[in-house]
From TrEMBL:
Species whose genome carries this gene: Fermentimicrarchaeum limneticum
Matches recorded under Pfam families: Ni_insertion (PF01969)
This protein's UniProt keywords: Nickel
Name of protein: LarC family nickel insertion protein
Length: 145
């Protein structure tokens, strides 16, 4: 279990371009996750709640970026504990070559998920649907392990 931090603010007067750029910048600056949740804001206006997951040591700096980029007047900070499944990366031989897969272990359930970038590269190179490449990699993993 680890402790992390969630930063959040409500935004109701902001363009999609600014939202996209803000998410990119936050991720480049060390945020672990960034999401926008549709909400009804003050006076019934449509808006978004921006949520950012980060390490506590980065919270002040990332909150400043949120305020700078969005113009919001305040950012909420919540410290929380997070339970994380054990994970490991393995290389699997497939008809596409070697591909990395992530294996997560939780009580009663193990999951296998091909690495996104590997599947993306193969799909683009071979002009095959992402899902088709993904499924073939999972089948290769199941045959080998």
């Amino acid at each position: 279990m680890i402790e992390e931090c969630m930063l959040e603010t409500n935004l109701d007067d902001i363009s999609g371009e600014i939202l996209g750029y803000t998410a990119e910048r936050l991720l480049a600056e060390g945020a672990k996750d960034v999401c926008f949740i549709p909400i009804f804001a003050k006076k019934g206006r449509p808006g978004f709640m921006l949520q950012v997951i980060c390490e506590k040591k980065d919270s002040r700096r990332l909150a400043a970026i949120i305020m700078e980029e969005t113009g919001t007047l305040g950012v909420r900070e919540v410290i929380f504990r997070k339970h994380i499944a054990k994970r490991k990366i393995k290389e699997v031989k497939t008809k596409f070559g070697k591909v990395r897969v992530k294996i997560s272990e939780t009580p009663g359930l193990n999951r296998v998920k091909p690495e996104y970038e590997d599947v993306r590269k193969i799909s683009m190179k071979l002009k095959k649907p992402y899902r088709e490449v993904y499924d073939e990699i999972v089948k290769s993993f199941q045959r080998q392990f």
